[in-house]
Write a structure and sequence with these properties.
This protein is mainly α. The protein contains 10 helices and no strands.
């Protein structure tokens, strides 16, 4: 295989015409096999999954906290408004409005070039930015799930002597998870694809690896198509896992 590559590459360099198959093979070999460039893609996949996992943890924790605060504020009885909770709810509302109303690219540039301009840990800055962005969407997903649970469940928990947060943690949230799982799965898939944006601040992930190959081979098609195929494969795997989890939860409901 290497012998054919060297032979056809020399023919192309000498100005000889290569047929479609020969040209395809040379470009494919340059993009993935020569100098073990496939390892760059593999490292990019590892970085992509790492950033996605970190952003997912940050987003879920932040989103659940914001959702619980906003739900607690909305479920207060008339005439029994807590001013501290009202102020915190206003901050949470401002956070979701600003984050959901501004482009992800702008948020990454602000975090990478302004707030953390002295940091060289671009992957962590990217994960933090993606997590903060995802948290705003997760908050709305979780809040809609919490509000969809029958209010009688909260009243039942309180009547048993549990406080608000214990009732949310032990009674309401477990029921809401089943309702919001499909939307959370879609948010996770969106988060996985959005990791490609951190390359604009120097984050090393799959697209960064593809761009590195492009600068060495001066050929864009195969590295970009290769990275797109890898993203597609990852999304299909996670979609399959999400569907399997949803089916298992449905089966547990029947039993």
């Amino acid at each position: 295989m290497e012998l054919l590559y060297q032979q056809w590459k020399a023919m192309g360099a000498a100005g000889e015409h290569l047929n479609l198959w020969q040209s395809f093979f040379v470009k494919f070999y340059q993009a993935f096999i020569e100098a073990d460039r496939w390892k760059q893609y593999l490292e990019g996949v590892g970085s992509t999954l790492y950033v996605t996992a970190m952003a997912l943890v940050i987003g879920v924790i932040l989103g659940v906290i914001v959702a619980v605060i906003r739900t607690a504020h909305d479920q207060q009885r008339f005439g029994h408004r807590n001013p501290v909770l009202g102020a915190v709810n206003w901050v949470c509302k401002l956070y979701t409005t600003v984050i959901r109303g501004t482009p992800m690219m702008v948020q990454l540039l602000v975090m990478g070039l302004v707030i953390f301009s002295n940091s060289r840990n671009f992957a962590m800055v990217g994960a933090l930015t993606l997590g903060i962005n995802s948290g705003a969407y997760v908050a709305e997903i979780v809040r809609s799930g919490l509000m969809s649970v029958d209010p009688g469940q909260m009243e039942a928990g309180r009547s048993l002597g549990m406080n608000y947060f214990d009732t949310m943690r032990l009674v309401v949230i477990p029921q809401a998870i089943k309702n919001i799982l499909p939307a959370l799965g879609n948010e996770f898939i969106t988060l996985l694809k959005d990791t490609s944006l951190i390359s604009v601040i120097g984050g090393k992930e799959l697209v960064y690896a593809a761009r590195g190959v492009i600068t060495r081979t001066y050929e864009s098609m195969f590295p970009l198509i290769g990275s797109a195929v890898i993203y597609l494969a990852l999304v299909m795997i996670f979609s399959w896992l999400q569907g399997k989890l949803e089916r298992r939860l449905r089966q547990s409901d029947r039993h």
